[in-house]
Amino acid sequence: DVKVTQSSRYLVKRTGEKVFLECVQDMDHENMFWYRQDPGLGLRLIYFSYDVKMKEKGDIPEGYSVSREKKERFSLILESASTNQTSMYLCASSLGQGETDTQYFGPGTRLTVL
Amino acid sequence: GQNIDQPTEMTATEGAIVQINCTYQTSGFNGLFWYQQHAGEAPTFLSYNVLDGLEEKGRFSSFLSRSKGYSYLLLKELQMKDSASYLCAVMDSNYQLIWGAGTKLIIKP
């Protein structure tokens, strides 16, 4: 079974703090993704990566950055947290294309920025 | 623009059948996914359709019509544990997933 883990289930930070969210997958997947999920909205893609040290902006990259130094690990960084970044953050990974591009999700991190 | 539409909420009775519809307009099409998401948990993969027709997996079936930009997820013999949100997602020509907002399914005894 694919396992995707995230460093925290719940996180509370203050405005202006730098926040690190870590994601690790154990299935040697090439592709990794960071989404945020807010009530009434679909999953929105923040950043994704198709390879080590490679990153691509998604639909809403502003205020975020990412790092992928190792294949299994993909980190999301909030350089200066703001209250509008309070959300559920979901990491996902996938193997390839077509049905093999099925994304497998971690348990999510619910971030509250005060 | 790209758009996925699905009902916000549906209610059904335990033991019954429910159909959750999804319509889409995307730039290209490389498959449609259905995911289940229980409250407070991560989405989990249910089905993938890339060709027209019905795919059956136990109590769950998924149908696709590419010409109509339409899919549905059919859940039979509903159980209380099927209470969850059901997310429809389409892979576009760039192999990016476009997500619907999800349909919250409430099962009543």
Characterise the protein shown here.
- The complex is a heterodimer of chains A (114) and B (109).
- Chain A has 114 residues and is an all-beta fold.
- Helices cover 0% and strands 50% of the residues of chain A.
- Chain A is built from no helices and 11 strands.
- Chain A has strands at residues 4-6, 10-13, 19-25, 31-37, 44-49, 56-57, 64-70, 73-78, 87-94, 104-105, 109-113.
- In chain A, the strands form 2 sheets. In chain A, strands 2, 4, 5, 6, 9, 10 and 11 form a 7-stranded mixed β-sheet that branches. A 4-stranded antiparallel β-sheet of chain A has the order 1-3-8-7, with no helix packed on it.
- The radius of gyration of chain A is 13 Å and the shape is globular.
- The mean pLDDT of chain A is 93.
- The mean pLDDT of chain B is 95.
- Chain B starts with a strand and ends with a strand.
- In chain B, 0% of the residues lie in helices and 57% in strands.
- Chain B is mainly β and 109 residues long.
- Chain B has no helices and 11 strands.
- Chain A binds chain B through residues 4, 40-45, 90, 97-99, 101-108, and chain B through 4, 8, 30-31, 33, 40-45, 48, 50, 87, 89, 91, 95-102.
Summarize this structure as a short list of keywords or feature phrases.
heterodimer; A: 114 residues; mainly beta; seven-stranded mixed sheet; four-stranded antiparallel sheet; B: 109 residues; six-stranded mixed sheet; five-stranded antiparallel sheet; 0% helix
Average pLDDT number of chain A: 93
* Main beta sheet of chain B: 6 strands, mixed
Terminal residue distance of chain B: 40 Å
Task: Sketch the topology of chain A as an H/E string, one letter per element.
Answer: EEEEEEEEEEE
- The tally of beta strands of chain A, per DSSP, is 11
Q: Major sheet of chain A: size, sense and barrel closure?
A: 7 strands, mixed
Total beta strands of chain B: 11
Biggest interface, CB < 8 A: A-B, 19 and 24 residues
